[in-house]
Design goal:
Helices cover about 45% and strands about 10% of the residues. It is α/β, with parallel strands linked by helices. It has a domain at about 5-235: TIM Barrel, CATH 3.20.20. It has an eight-stranded parallel β-sheet. The longest helix has 26 residues, at about 305-330. The two termini are about 25 Å apart.
Length: about 325
Amino acid sequence: MHPETPAYLRGIVAPLFTPAFGDRSIDHDGMRRYLDFVVSKRCVDAVFFRSGVGKWKTWTRAEVEAVLETVSDHLRGRIPFLMGAMGVFRGPDTRTDGYTRESIELARLAAARGAAAAVLTTPFALEPDRRGRGVEQVMWDYFREVDAAVDGPLVLYKTPGEEVYDIAPPFLERLLGETKHLVGMKYSTPDAGKFARLCEVARRARPGFGMLSGHEGFYLDNLRAGACGIVSEGCTPYPELFKFLKEAHDRGREEVAREAQRSIAALLACHQNDYDASAKGIAILIGQGLHIDSETRDGAELPDPVVQAEIIAMINSAIDRCRRLMRQVEG
């Protein structure tokens, strides 16, 4: 790993679910308890709020500013935090000035409140326009304008499922050659070859640029390709497994790394098509002892207690297996 890669990107960046009340409003006391819970596990290198699993598209501007104050005041430097600084989502919108301007304002606000970095998803809120700009030009203009207007670090975030708004290797190389503040990118793909090509571009164009795996089912493959860490839905319910995996990989304990990866893949697949990822994650955290309302930001149904107990038992068993295996290989 390059020494200039930011420390907060070297490992587990935990995207936070959004604690909510029954009326869908954000539970700030629940967020404080959630932050304490994550910090207490001593596995996570940074937290990231207003993320995909945090249902960032449902947030208002006032909510972004209020939660930023809550997170900043409560953490007080105990762990770095990142904030999703995308403009407020109002649906596909060709009025690029409003969305871009709001992204700039939020990125500046995040930096002023102590965020380690502001995160920018690919701007699928912006459609190609009547001036003939295609998707790639829309993305190019957006990232360039935000980068030119801020002073703090920026992390790119390729949204899963938004394949039209993709960051291909040639686009990334060009972007890194003409921007100042981009320090990393979270990229989610099951295509290990594509992730490897992006890592190679990053090494060549900007040494120290951190490539974060966005697909936990391929974390080990992506570490082998050059990833410095991970951002994924399992990073708060079972960060211990990601820590086992990366430490084992870094120390050449491939048997442990493979076992951790198998366990992570099994947990990802468990009831994957039955429940929303955020609902599944919140249910696990509540079962692990986090005291928050059993509501999701968008009202998605949580797993029932039987499923919740099944998943928690899988997590505990996987952690125990990895711990025993690490002791064996370490002698």
